[in-house]
Amino acid sequence: MKRGLVVDREAQMIGVYLFDEGKVYRGIPRKKILKKDRIYAGDFVQGEIVDDKHFTIEKLEERKNFLKRPPVANVDNTIVVATIKMPQFDNFLLDNLLVVYEYLKTDPVIVFNKIDLLDGEGLKELAKWEKIYTEAGYPVIKVSAETGEGIEKLKDFLKGSISVFAGASGVGKSSILSKLTGIPLETRQVSEKTERGRHTTTGVRLFPFGDGAFVGDTPGFSSVDASLFVDKKDVRLYFREFLKYQCKFPDCTHTKEPDCGVKEAVKRGEISPERFKSYLRIIKESVEEVLS
After folding, report:
1. For residue 70, is the peptide bond before it cis, meaning its omega torsion is within 30 degrees of 0?
2. Domain membership flag for residue 251
3. Among candidate residues 240, 292, 230, the one with its CA nearest the CA of residue 271
């Protein structure tokens, strides 16, 4: 049997990219597959070519992970896109997204887009957040979908992997994807009044992109609550920089317990107060009480 990747899944339409053939076929699942499984973009499947347009799906391979919004399987990297302006940077939204995508067993890469719009103060703000997230343990890439700056560096993260884009509406996910793949995708300008974009992504589609890579767009988010995905007591496990420190109690929540290595690291400036405040907001603890 031949092996393929589901790259297009909308309504009854299934597009399967066959690695040996280097082209997309219309996937037709056998009844035994339809009875017990639902097929999503990102699924690896096995089957046989029927003709030059159709491929029967005989087997669905086990998934390593699954993202519900959008529904896509086997994601390696989540490219979390943010902007310093247009729209204004929201570190709390970014921190929630990072927790969620770490929990879902993907590797987040932070991309700051629209750097061509930044002046002196904006560049200082960008440098500040780049330092915070780099020190927290995340790859940070600065790009401009408008000018193409940083796009080649981003390509290096996509080689041989399945990646999806995430981030607030209007940050330019589809524009970056168009620049990477050369495929024009629908984008809409950010309103100067609201600094928000409108959603342009509906169905789930992965785009083949050199060196065995596939990238996909996702709907934009105006808000994400990580506590709806992750149990309150486990959120601490998805702040990478916390894991370097030891506390007196192995289940320390880094709030009111004595001899907390994380709180001491915050006081020494080794963990950014911005990140720690995001953590406390996610688990709904008072910043003033914990840090007093």
Report:
1. yes
2. yes
3. 240
143, 243: one domain: no
In a domain, 225, yes or no: no
- Provide the 3-class DSSP secondary structure of residue 276: helix
In this structure, is residue 141 part of a structural domain? yes
Overall average pLDDT of the 157-164 stretch: 89
What is the domain count for the chain? 3
Quick check: is 90 in a domain? yes
Identity at 279, one-letter amino acid code: Y
Give the residue numbers spanning the domain of 261: 231-291
Whose CA is closest to 141, among 153, 132, 126? 153
Residue 159, both tokens: 């080689």
Element (H, E) at 132: helix 120-136
DSSP letter string, 156-191: HHHTTSEEEEEEBTTS-HHHHHHHHH-------PPP
Q: Give tens-digit pLDDT for 200-259.
A: 444 578 988 877 899 986 666 656 789 889 999 999 999 999 999 999 999 999 999 999
Q: What are phi and psi of 108, to 5 degrees?
A: -75, 140
Please provide the average confidence, as pLDDT, over all residues in the chain: 89
Q: Name the pLDDT band for 188 (thresholds 50, 70, 90).
A: very low
